[in-house]
Amino acid sequence: MVLRRAWSRIREDITAARLRDPAARGGLEIALLYPGLHAIWAHRVWHALWIRGFRFVARLGSQLTRWTTGIEIHPGAVIGRRFFIDHGMGVVIGETAEVGDDVMLYHGVTLGGRQREGGKRHPTLGDRVAVGAGAKVLGPVVIGADCVIGANAVVTKDAPEGSVLVGVPAKPRTRPESLDTRALLTAPEYSI
Question: Which residues of 24-62 are buried (b: 16+ CB within 10 A; e: fewer)?
Answer without folding.
Answer: beeeeebbeebbbbbbbebbebbbebbeeeeeeebbebb
